[in-house]
C-alpha cells in the first residue's frame, strides 16, 4: 500500500529525515515512536504531501505520488489528523466534516457524514460550533472524523491521544480499535506512550535523529538497546 524509499528531508542545514525507508501493508496498524524532534511529524507531512522531501520516493498503491499535491493524495486514499486539533472556525461539527469530505473526495455523501458522527459519538454536537463547544476529547474525535470523511485507505494519526486523561484515553483507544475493525483501513499512529502503542499495534517503527532505528513487534522494539538509549538520553 504505502512504500517510502530513502526519504530525506533537509531544512537549511538541518537534516530532519535521513534515508528513511518504510512500507505499510493493507489493514496494518503500525506505531511510529521516537523522542521529540525525531522526525515523526515531518514523515507524516511527506506522506500526506504537506512537505516535499529533498530525496527519495513515495509510492501509494504502487503509484509514485511524490509530485502529487495534498488534495490529490487525499483523493487517492491518504487521510491524516494533526497533533493540534484544527476545527474550521464558525462552522458546525457537521459542516467541518462536509468540508473535509469535499476536499478529500470531491463530492458530498450526507449518509456517510451521519454515520461518522454516530460512530464517533458526536451526533449530539453535530450542529454546535466546532471551535467553541467541544471538549478536548471531542475535538480529537472531530480530527479523526474529518480524516474518515475523506474515505481513506491509509489513516495517519498524529498524537491523537495526547493530552487526554486516563479514562478518556482508554475510551479513545477502544474507538480506534473499533474504527480499524469497522473500516478495515491501514493506520500509522504517532504516540509517545509505550503502553498505548503496545496495546494498539502489532508492529512499531522507531525514529531517532531522523533515522529509522528499529522496526518490529512492540516486544522486540522496546527491548532493543538502541531504542532504550534513544529514550533515556540519546534522542533529539
Low-confidence stretches: none
Number of helices: 9
Structural class: alpha/beta
> Quick one: overall form?
globular
Distance between the termini: 30 Å
Q: Strand order of the main beta sheet, please?
A: 6-7-8-3-9-10
Global Rg = 17 Å
Encode the helix/strand succession as letters: EEEHEEHEHHHEHEHEEHH
Give helix % range: 25-40%
Quantity of strands, as a count: 10
Kindly state the mean pLDDT as a whole number? 93
In percent terms, what proportion of residues is strand? 25-35%
Mind describing the biggest β-sheet? 6 strands, mixed
How would you portray this structure in words?
The chain is α/β, with parallel strands linked by helices and 236 residues long. The chain contains 9 helices and 10 strands. The strands form 2 sheets. A 6-stranded mixed β-sheet has the order 6-7-8-3-9-10, sandwiched between helices. A 4-stranded antiparallel β-sheet has the order 2-1-4-5, covered by helices on one side. The longest helix has 18 residues, at 166-183.
